[in-house]
Amino acid sequence: MLIARLLSPLAILGGALVAGVSYASAATVVHKDHDPDALWKIVHQRCAQGTAPCAVYDESRHIALLHSIEGRGQYLLIPTDKVAGMESAALLQANQPNYFAEAWSYRDRVGASYGMPVPETMLSLAINSARGRSQNQLHIHLDCLAPEIRATLDRDASRIGSDWAVLPDTLDGHRYRARYLTSLVASPFLVLAASLRHPETEMGDHTLVVAPLRSGYVLLDDVAQGSDRASGEELQDHACLAVMKAPASKTR
Q: What are phi and psi of 215, to 5 degrees?
């Protein structure tokens, strides 16, 4: 359920409810909308013209950053080019922007939105599969990691190595496989593609999640099948309750 906030001025664009405010007062959009092209219209028709609601719009880096109303601290990293999502062939090109690394570079904004620091171990990035998303423009969710997911990853850390392996424990009831990354220099999209026999037709069924682990990161992958829509966003906590409920001294 979307966490609604009263903002003004308001405008309707392509079925999307947009709050036209500056980053200082939290540029905010609804990304789960009946119009599957709402995000693209916002970025292409408004942000490209230098108007709100983008917190960041950098055409030279081919990225935009939006502050979603689904969670006080959630941001969406979106290409300024038309890229549908996980199934896009553009993601298989080596010269594409490293969207995950770009999204992670804005991680401090999550804590800034809450008015308190959020430990990096409690942050995450996620992109849903074609079946598990509502928008037909690639967007990476930057937000808090659910505390129970953090605990499971820490418990299974010794099982996560440089090769893909299915985790011994389920995450939110789904069976994910995991791989350790020392850095985000290599695009997680390409890391996933290298493990698939036919990435050009298989990528769209996958979801990816990145979270800190040890001195690097864990890359999580689930594939849509049956009732599992492969929505890695399910591992995030858009209310960031673990941080909000923790004593201030423990969030530093």
A: -95, 5
H helix count then E strand count, the chain: 7, 12
Do residues 161 and 167 touch, judged by C-beta distance below 8 A?
no
What is the full DSSP assignment across 40-77? HHIIIIIGGGT-TT-SEEETTTTEEEEEESSSTT-EEE
Output the CA–CA distances (angstroms, integers) from residue 244 to 27, 69, 110, 218, in the order listed.
21, 17, 12, 24
Rounded Cα–Cα distance for residues 169 and 64 (Å): 35
- DSSP H/E element including 103: helix 99-104
Q: What is the pTM assigned to this prediction?
A: 0.86
Q: CA-to-CA distance for 249 and 86, rounded, in angstroms?
A: 39
- Name the 3-class secondary structure at 39: helix
| Integer Cα distance of 92 and 126 in angstroms | 18
- pLDDT tens for each residue of 148-194: 999 999 999 999 999 999 999 999 999 999 999 999 999 999 999 99
Please report the sign of the dihedral spanned by the C-alpha atoms of residue 162, residue 164, residue 165, residue 166.
Answer: positive
